[in-house]
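Standup, Tuesday
Yesterday: got the pipeline producing structure tokens again.
Today: sanity-check two examples.
Blockers: none.

Example 1:
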Amino acid sequence: MAKVSIIIPFYNCAYVDKAIESALNQTYQDKEVIVVNDGSINHTERITPYLDRIIYIQKENGGTASALNAGLRAATGKYFSWLSSDDLYLPQKVEKQVQVLESLNACVSYMNYYLIDERGKVISQPAGIGFPLVSQFIHKMRRGCIINGCTVMVRMDVFQEFGYFNESLLYTQDYDFWLRILTKHSFHYISEPLVYYRVHGEMGTKKHRKSIPQEILQTKNRHRASTNAAFKAAIEAEIKSGKLKS
């Protein structure tokens, strides 16, 4: 089996125990769960019952990207899977995603997901979006991030190829990384929703909603040339293969 490293960045989150349980309860057996405490002072006691079943890293606060990178440096798996401390995996998430990546010999996949509220109640229809053509996916990604980071699985050698998450970015470290790797690797979409994305008052996208748009714009502009080239190459390949009419 291909080992999967599930990395959970944690900063003062009251839901972290639920996230850890969902990672440990995966049907896929060959896994390690790495929890990175990014300078938390609250809710750390929720991790204590799991210390003998996880890899626990404590560090000074540096943001989500630095926590993910700390986990990546400690990881020993073939695949990386990110789980935010307020979100949940359904039991077969890792198993089904590994099956897809292994069967296609692919590097990266993302999947469908549900929104849940503070109590864990599903409050949406499946919220993910897939595309039949690579060019359509790239076109959407040039406009904004349509990927939920906690639905993604990435082969570890991709980080050797493109580097780690950009720690200078407070909010768009995931979007920045996806834009880097889509220039070379296809994102394979799994339509089955196997992740719960929690919507609550303390989530970062709500607390920092005034600051995020500017960083998104800067990230798009920084990758504009490379994503434009990738879009053009995808169009040409699809015309050549007959998937798209000229």
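Example 2:
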Amino acid sequence: MTVIWWARRDLRLSDNPALSAAAADGPVLPLLVVDPALLRDGPRSAWYASNALALDEQLDGGLALRTGSPAREVLDVARAVGATAVHVSRETTPAGRRRDDSVRDLLADNGIDWIETGSPYAVTPGRIAKADGTPYRVFSAFQRAWREHRWPAPARLPEQVRWASPPEQDPAARTALQKLVRDCATPLPPAGEQAALERWKRFRDDDLHRYAQERDRPDLDASSRLSPYLKVGAVHPRTLLAGLDSSEGAAKFVSEVCWRDFYADVLHHHPQTLRTDLTDALAGLEYSEPGDEFAAWQRGETGYPLVDAGMRQLLAEGWMHNRVRMVVASFLSKDLHVWWPHGAAHFLDLLIDGDPASNAHGWQWVAGTGTDAAPYFRVFNPTAQAEKFDPNGDYVRRYVPELRHLEGAAALSPWKNAEGYAHGYPTRVVDHAEEREVTLARYRSARGK
């Protein structure tokens, strides 16, 4: 009997536990539902659409595409092909779980099995706990348990998968996906599983050896650039972990994969933390409402070159270097005193790798309200960060054309140069030294000190 593989955050064929389980169960109909409620113009949706279309091409047009409510569409397709089961990768975000609960209940009412196999993570959230059964909230302890727990080898797909022919296609679904890609002003990376695997091979062969030393340098761009592919499931983290050696670069890369699993685990246990603080230590902290300075931060016009370069990279590419993400987050939280969810929401609007768990808890780490939070008195100095991680100003000049006339490190402090503002670069919206003192005073007050 026919079964359905419903693709969501696993837009690939290899190392796909849900698809492998479906293939062992009967002829497989691959299905993707375009939920209009989740379609928004912009790079994030366009990136997903691009990878969905790449999967359809990989299947020679055999991906059943539907648009509408997932519960209704999955049931309708299952009825149309007489499916006995729907196979999925386990969803772990709050919205994803609510959606899946609704679909599962509807299928059960109609005698159709719901089968979850695998997840988008090396270790599925909820699998690792402390000795007393409570979840981890400190990364170092989680990482030790995560490494001891290990993860399965990459899932293998049968050499011959019996693909079921899709029922009558929904042209509106394909049109919606194509329109998202066509209307996206942001240049997107090559999409699809093959592009992801090629990117991984280039990084592993050419850059992994320098990853530990150079990953924090945006000017050198030693990042793997795999996070967008992980976001849509064009590659599974186990594929990346398989066969790595014990080099320093590999160890650091594994640690970064673990951070992704850790934040997913935290969100699994604390779903409210997408928009609220994990800890209440700063519950009484005074914040400033987003205003003109927040808008300047969004545009990359704060007058602080590294902050502006990062925000302009986000606007231009739908991506930002990880070190710079911390700097711009600290600037919004501790120089402009804006509550972190405002910045996190802006990131999710634009980042093609915008993972809800990693995004929310990365912001909370900087703001001092999450797991392993940065001490409240740690306030990133945007100029010092630029001098350390972009010492020659190459990253700044790449994204801030108003400063390209300044050579070397001069681009990092235009206020020190007589020609610093000659090409229209904005002056600083705030004085960092003054705002640091404001932040420390507010944090001490909130902590009752």
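Quick observation on example 2: The domain at 292-447 is CATH 1.10.579.10 (DNA Cyclobutane Dipyrimidine Photolyase, subunit A; domain 3). The chain has three domains: 1-119, 121-152+192-269, 292-447.
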